[in-house]
Amino acid sequence: METVAFDGSQPTGAVGHYVYSVEGDEWTWSSGLYTMHGYAPHEIPVSTEVILEHKHPEDRSRALAVLETALEDGQPFSCYHRIIDRSQRVRSVLSVGHGVEGADGGVVRVEGYFVDLTQVRRDETEAEVQTALARVAEHREAIDEAKGMVMIATGCSSDAAFACLRRYSQAANMKLHDIAHKLVDAVSPTNRGSDLVIPLLEDLVHGAARTAKVPNPSAIPGEARR
């Protein structure tokens, strides 16, 4: 069976092929590249000015510098940047290409591809958000559980228990959620009374004090004790 190489002319908006001819300053775009920029195939004449207008303002100078370098040395290149399509939508793209030398050794054209990575970046961002939300939920659960343990151990209110955890976290130079996780992990679900909770918090602070010389917990004012 004959294998047809992809050259960018196939109908897709995800990948587009281009050729830039130095003589005449002429650009050729595949249908996919027009689509990526929000146009119907061959709807507009492509020029260097048009291409630069569609570059994101923060990426324009860098993208132009990459092209100019390719015109000088003809070496393969890649450039991750953003474009703004006809409808003012920002797209994340990767341009790759290389220079083609003429008989005199100079670069006569540059050709390559644009790959639309917008959906990939969107998926990555959504995954990052979901991971962050899951981490926040996990930390919040540990903090609430540790707060409940302090309430049982000291008979204090919810706000006072949170303040207690915060003071110990500051004294131990640890993040609040870290000291909460350590406390929850160290105390069994069946034994969360004052005989273990406060001593464990003090042990965490003493351990930090030995390495970082933080204040002794006895110096922490207003600690609720049973």
Q: What does this entry look like structurally?
A:
This protein folds into 2 domains: 15-116, PAS domain (Beta-Lactamase), CATH 3.30.450.20; 126-219, no CATH class. Helix 4 crosses helix 5 and helix 5 (158-171) runs parallel beside helix 7. The protein is α+β, with helices and mostly antiparallel strands and 226 residues long. It has helices at residues 31-36, 48-53, 60-73, 118-154, 158-171, 176-186, 197-212; strands at residues 15-21, 26-29, 77-84, 90-101, 107-116. The protein is elongated, with a radius of gyration of 31 Å. Strands 2-1-5-4-3 form a 5-stranded antiparallel beta sheet, with helices on both faces. The chain is 46% helix and 18% strand. It is built from 7 helices and 5 strands.
Question: Which terms would index this structure?
Answer:
single chain, 226 residues, 5 strands, 46% helix, 2 domains, alpha+beta, elongated, disordered C terminus, 5-stranded antiparallel sheet, 7 helices
Kindly state the percentage of residues in helix: 40-55%
Total DSSP E strands: 5
* CATH topology grouping of the largest domain: Beta-Lactamase
The CATH class of the largest domain is identified as Alpha Beta
The CATH superfamily of the largest domain turns out to be PAS domain
Shape descriptor reads elongated
Gap between N and C termini, in Å? 83 Å
Average pLDDT reading: 79
Tell me the number of helical segments per DSSP (H or I, 4 or more residues long).
Answer: 7
N-to-C order of helices and strands = EEHHHEEEHHHH
The profile of the biggest β sheet is: 5 strands, antiparallel
Quaternary assembly:
single chain
Provide the gyration radius in Å.
31 Å
Supply the number of structural domains.
2
Report the uncertain regions: 1-13, 209-226
CATH architecture name of the largest domain: 2-Layer Sandwich
- Beta-strand residue fraction: 15-25%
Instruction: Return the structural class.
Output: alpha+beta
The strands making up the biggest β-sheet line up spatially as 2-1-5-4-3
